[in-house]
Every structure is written in C-alpha cells, then in structure tokens.
Amino acid sequence: MTRTDWLSALVVIVVWGLNFVVMKWGLATVSPLLLCALRFMAASLPFLLFVRPPKNLSWGLLAAYGLVQGVGQFGLLFTGMKLGMPAGMASVVLQTQAFITMLMAAALLGEKPQRWQWIGLTVAIAGLVLIGAAHGDGAADMSLAGFVLTVGAAAMWAGSNLLTRVAATQGPYEPVSFIVWTSLFPIVPLLLLSWWIYGAAQMQQQLQGLGWRDAAVVAYLALLSTLLGYGLWTRLLQRYAASTVAPLSLLVPVIGLLSAMLLLGELPTGLQWLGTAGVLLGMVVNQFGGRWLKR
C-alpha cells in the first residue's frame, strides 16, 4: 500500500472508531430511529442532483442493500445503544459480523469455511458469551436488550456484506455513488417506524429542538462515517486484496474502546475485557490462521 492509502486507511479507522461515541452523544437528545433517518437523509438528499446512480446495478439490489444496512444494521444498533449498550462494547460486538458473514456465505453461497475459521469462530463466541454475561458498572453498564440488538445489527451487517458481493458480480461501480443512492431507501421506513413508536408530536418536538451539537452529530455520521468512511474503504478494497485491507478493521474496536473510556468515562469490567480479548483473538485467528498453518 502507498503512503496515501495507508493514510486513507488510518482516517477510516479513526472515523469509524470515534463513530460510536458520536452516536451516544446524538442519542442523548434524539430518538434512535429518527437520528438514523437524519443520518441517511444527510448522506443522500443533498447529493442526488450531483451524483448519478451507480451503473451496472439494479434498483432492486440498491433498495435491498439500503434497507438491510440502514433499517437493519443501523436501526438495530442505534436502538440497542439507546437501550443500554455502551459505545465501547458496541464497537467490539459489532465486529462479530465477520463470523456471521462466514456462516451466511457457507449457507447461502456454498463457501466452505476453513478449519482455522471455525477455531476463530469458537474463540469469538466464547468472548461474546462473556461480554453478554457481564453487566458492567457505571457508564459501562450494559443491558441484555442492548446486547441482543447489537448482535442483531452485526447479523444485518453480514447480510449487507453478502449483497455487496452480489453487487460486485454485476460489474464495477463508483463507491460514493453506491452509498449516496442506497442511503435513500431507508429514510421513509425509518421515519414511519419512528412515527409508529414515538408518535408525530414527539418527533416534531425533537426536530424543533435540534441544536448545533445535534447538527454536528448528524454531519459526522453522514459525511464522515458514511460517505468518507465507506467511500475510502471501498476504494482500498478495489485496489488491494481483501487479505491486505480487512485486517485493518481490527483496529476499529481498539479506537472505539479507548475513545469511549476517554470521552464517555466507560470503564469495562474484568469480564468485559476478557470477553473483548476473546472476540479480538477470534478475529485475528480468522484473518491470519491460514498464513500460520502454511508456515
């Protein structure tokens, strides 16, 4: 990788790692589904007149990806964090999407996992069980509902990964164009769900009460995390082998944990640290196990 691409990767890692703290800040004043809808509105509507739809991709695929990622992954993640999932632990648990992707690819695409991947999965599940069993203290206190919804968000992320593979078979496409146009589809479902759960009066009250801090949160989630982050990451995957780029995502939960400790005062318990080590170790085995066995 060139120095410029290494810098791009570092930018993505930091932006995505800090993303969980920013989510917590936004959820302090805005309900989760409404905040999620605002994120995708800001990531799509201002750019529709300037960014053309991606070539070679069907509208059905764009809609499916947008709904699975927008309503599924982020709808569940935002709700889980609102219901008691600490930002630092969310950054770790969400990474289990790698193993869920592996299982879904085996079931739906016929891809056979290797022996070391099963070992990594087993270690990561053990870590996940420890995290789920630990309630945490103070700012790091975790609810069962928040944990379960975050695991569900990881499963939705895995589903969007499979849709990305399907998109790759339809031909090359521009990453930013893909993100802008897929971000259009979750807006209406998220707004309808927010209206159904919270009511029109509460939604209107929250929208009228939005301040500069809320606007900055939405801008960060939409412009930095969504457009810049996914745009740069997809470009890296287009230029280099997945085995070169994918391991860099292991640093995202590290930034997530550190930023949550420094900015939110979240101090994981010993059991949470042990579970985190298990999940990260499982991911390392999943990424590098093949290289170790070949030596």
Number of helices: 14
Approximate shape: globular
Please report the distance between the alpha carbons of the first and last residues.
24 Å
How large is the share of residues in beta strands? Answer: under 5%
- For the residues shown, what is the average pLDDT? 88
Low-confidence stretches: none
Protein structure class: mainly alpha
H and E order: HHHHHHHHHHHHHH
Taking the sheet with the most strands, its summary is: none
What's the count of strands? 0
How large, in whole angstroms, is the Cα Rg? 19 Å
Summarize the amount of helix as a percent range. Answer: over 70%
Q: How many separate structural domains? A: 1
What labels describe this entry?
295 residues; mainly alpha; 14 helices; 0% strand; globular
Furnish the topology, listing elements before pairings.
Blueprint (H helix, E strand, L loop, with lengths): L2 H25 L4 H13 L14 H24 L4 H7 L3 H12 L6 H19 L10 H26 L5 H8 L4 H12 L1 H9 L3 H28 L2 H4 L5 H14 L5 H25 L1
Helix pairs in contact: 1-4, 1-11, 1-13, 2-3, 2-9, 2-11, 3-7, 3-8, 4-13, 5-7, 6-14, 8-11, 9-10
